[in-house]
Structure formats: structure tokens, C-alpha cells
Amino acid sequence: MNILGIESSCDETSVAVISNDKLTANLISSQDFHTKYGGVVPELSSRAHLQIVIPLLKDALEKSKLKLRDIDVIAATAGPGLIGALLVGLTFAKGVAYSLQKPFVAVNHIEGHIFSGFLMDEKPEFPYLALVVSGGHTLLLLVESFTKIVKLGTTVDDAAGEAFDKVAKMLGLGYPGGPKIQKYASLGNPEKIIFPVADLKDKYNFSFSGLKTAVLRHIQKNYVANNPIPEEELYNIAASFQHAVIKALERNAERAIKNYDVKSLSLVGGVAANKALRDALTKLAEKYDKKIIIPSLEYCGDNAAMIAFRGSKLYEAGITSGFDYSPFPGLSADHFA
Fold it and tell me: Was domain 123-294 assigned CATH 3.40.50.300?
């Protein structure tokens, strides 16, 4: 069985092939030019996907030593994401499937992340907790099987990754914010400034807008507008902010571990690349004698390997999509049980 996966939800174009349960190609083209705009420009993103998706497909097939006719199932991200970007990958994938008269599977982008731990040598064991932390989503999920996912908590406002980007902008560090905050935080004192960690009525939900505002107020109170913040203070603000985000994520994950009989904890999504967060969740899992699964950096960000894997499991469960399938950019994990 040869599964082709295509991912184009935001600013990475990716094509992957899983052949007989082995990942043989996972090619990713990142749109680094968005940096100068301070964020992703949707129209430019769509154009870049158009330009690179066919060359990536050719390279992925060549690396996998396959011809296009050898592909048995085509899977593609169908949302959530940028509508124009999604349309490029989704319609291209449907076109390939239609031309080959092979099954097409539409994959929810978040579900791709949820199961990305299965791309590692050591895999999650059901049931497990999945903490999804990305630029657009922050979710705590109980994953009981490949077809049953229970949502325990979500963010009521900003996603953690979005907060990283916005705080980085406040500090003048540029875009994308996650790597910049991590770099500066590694040089600062995480306990120098006590930023608030929201404790909501629903014990598994998250909130980061108040934290983001607290950072802004701290900057406004202590530093003259239009003057650069001293470098040492940039380190301390970044470290204290990052510490507060991790504390919120770790606290809710620990609550869930205490209340649900799970075998594994899996940290996934773009922000899972953050070393301090990886270390914190690893220590948490060890504390409760749970297996910890964190994908390698290649699989934390947007990638087609996770889409191909999720597509393969949906296909095995008898779930396919019609060629009239439309993207669902507004869909989040709210559709989980």
C-alpha cells in the first residue's frame, strides 16, 4: 500500500509518501519570505504552494522509487487553515486521485498533529493524552483510538503559539516568534517577572490573552516608548513569559493525568519544538510513570508525513471522501466527541 500525503494549510508545502507502513519521503518547502511582512500573507502563500507542489511531488516519488501510478491512496489536508492555501493542496490532491481513479481522503490538520507521534520509533499507547500546541490551536485531548478522540480542553482566546508571535513582536524580535522567544528565554531568568497564569472555571481550558496583555503592560510601564528595551531585560521578559505559558500547559496536563487512566502523554504541534516545553512535559510524564512521546522537530511543524499517516488510518477504517469535498477552514477540534 502506497499512501501519498499533501499538506498546504499555511506557509509550508509538503509532500510525503508512506510505502508499506514505512515513511519513504517527507519533503517540506517553507515560505521564509513571510518574515519581512511580520506574518503570513495568505495570497502570497497560495501562489507559493502553486509553484512548488508539482516539483515536490516529483521529488517525493523519485525518492520513494515509485511512479505516480503506483500510488494507492491520496490524502490531503482539508482544514483548518488559510482558505487559499488549503485549496491549492486539496484540489491538486483530488485531481491526482481522480486522474488515477484512486481513493481520496480529506484529513483534518489537527488530527494529523494528534497522531504525529506514531511517526516515531516509540509510539503512543492508547489511551493517551495529546497536548496540541500550535500557532492556531491549543488543545488537551483524550485519544482512545484512531477513531475516537475526546476533547478535554481548549483555549478560550489566543492559542499559545499566537501568544509567542505577538509577544515577540512587542519585544521587537521579529517573526516567527517561537524560535526568537526560545533563544532569548534561554539567556534570561524565568522567575524575574511574575506574569499571570489564568486559572479558568473549566480546569482543562486555557487562556493566554491576559498573559499577553500583562507583558504589554509591563513594557509600557517600565520602558519609554520608541526606545529599545535593554538586552538583558529582553532576555528576562522572554524567559518569564515562556515560563508562564509552560506552567499553564503543564498544570492542565497534570490535572488530566491525575483524572484519566492513560498510558502515554504526547506533546505535538509547532510549539512542541520548544525545548523548555519538551523538557517540562518529559519531567511531568516521568513523575507519573507515563510514556512520553514527542515527535522529532521535522514532525512538530506542518508536514505531509502526518497527513499521509492519518489518511492511511482513516482509509483502513473505511473512511474516504468524495471528489466534491470542499475545504473546511473554520473547522477546529470542536468536532471531537
Answer: no
Q: 134 with 111: CB under 8 angstroms? A: no
> What pLDDT shows up at residue 207?
97
Closest listed residue to residue 217, CA positions, set 198, 193, 235, 201? 193
Q: Which residues contact 189 (CB under 8 A, 6 or more apart)?
A: 235, 236, 239, 240
In 10 A of CB 155, how many CB atoms?
23
Q: Report which of 77, 75, 58, 57 is spatially closest to residue 7, judged by C-alpha positions.
A: 77
> 111, 89, 51: which is closest to 327 by C-alpha?
89
Length of the chain: 337
Q: Rounded to an integer, what distance in angstroms lies between the CA atom of residue 221 and that of residue 67?
A: 62
The residue behind cell 478522540 is: 149
- Top-level CATH class of 2-114+299-335? alpha beta
Domain pair 2-114+299-335 / 123-294, same fold: yes
Enumerate the H helices of 223-274 as residue ranges. 231-259
Tell me the sheet residues that pair with 27: 15
User: Using CB atoms within 10 A of its CB, is residue 62 exposed (0-12), middle (13-18) or buried (19+)?
Assistant: exposed
For residue 112, the model assigns a pLDDT of 97
Nearest CA to 4 out of 109, 107, 81 is that of 107
CA distance 14 to 112: 13
Domain edges within the chain: 2-114+299-335, 123-294
Structure confidence by residue, pLDDT tens digits, 250-300:
999 999 999 999 999 999 999 999 999 999 999 999 999 999 999 999 999
Cell numbers given for 92: 491538486
Regions of the chain with pLDDT less than 70: 327-337
